[in-house]
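User: Okay, second chain of the day. Same drill as before: sequence in, structure tokens out.
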Amino acid sequence: MNPSSFIIDIDLDRRSTTPLYMQITDAIAQRINEGALPPGARLENEIALAQRLRVSRLTARQALQQLVDRGLLKRQRGVGTVVSPAPIRRPVDLTSLYADLLTAGHEVTTSVLEYEEHAATANDAEVLGTEVDVPVVSMLRLRSADGQPLALMANLLPAAIAPSPQELTTAGLYDLLREREIVPVTADQIVGARAASPEEAATLGVQEGTALLTAARTSYDEEDQIVEFGNHLYRADRYSVTTTLFAS
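Assistant: Same drill. Structure tokens below.
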């Protein structure tokens, strides 16, 4: 076992009907949720864990795998099993992810992977409610938080209001639009999920087929004109959305 690994005191009740692997899982999960095991903390490997707790290696492996499946732990080649970064929970508001992450205390970086100005196709014109051949900009950005990929964001908007690639690395799209006095006030959004393609998985640092959260959003200004269309992918192990529901 690596001497820098965290050792967790776990009292197993061998008379309990709760399986031993689940008792181990729950004990480690509690330490993570309490903050006793910070993101990046390395745990002892399954062999050392099994020997210390006097359980089978299969039991230790099941316990750690449960935590990996729940997104609390991740396996890093050459490093071992470490605590995953804290999940990012974001309210369903018409705000910039960039600004929300900064407000929550995260270190945020943006890479502009694609940026193209072109004449609107028939599909572009339909999406933006404009005319064919009007100049539009399509872009693809990778947003990372605390050094870890978080979101892959594709957007389409009129070229006349589009920020430059350099600007997009320093601020959120909505914040840059507001600087141009373009203010999104309403939006239609569909949230879903799908499996990551090989290319998406490589960009977001997950395995092919991993579930990704999807969000397709059309934003409107106060005159009900379409401002932009976004089609975003988020790592489901690091990102979730929250909303408040009211009884009708």
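The two ends are 57 Å apart (CA to CA).

User: Thanks, on to the next one.
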